[in-house]
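Table 4 source record.
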Amino acid sequence: MQHVRSTTSVTPAFAATVRKALADALLWGFFVAGLAASTAAGAVFDGTAKNAVSGAGAVVALLAGSRLAKKPRIKAFLGRPGTLWFLFLFNGATAVALYFSMDGVKGILAAAMMGLVSVGAAGGLVAGRRTRAHARAARARAVGETATRETAAADAPWA
């Protein structure tokens, strides 16, 4: 008796792709659910329950968001100079607006957190500028000429 190999079996590559897509969807779901819980807890709960749900939602969103930020495509997007400039300017302006528009500890805390994101983006800009300058100098040494106007334009913050 001869055994015939089934053509309907799932290939390992396909199974890995499905698992990866399912894990990504689950991770995005946790991120969105955490944001929703931390934002809308006051509409559903009162008192201590509201604080607990809001805090737990923020932690879930933070953990899922940090895992999402490690994905190659998102990491590449967040590392672009244009994205970093936007994050730096937008979050800095938001921190100032929050400080002046909210009263008490909540306003100070919100402004400090947004300012922290802005400072992080500024750190990414400085580190990226240093890295691009070293790469430009290495290219110039390898070619034996100084950086031209075209390479300077290609390395501009909006490129």
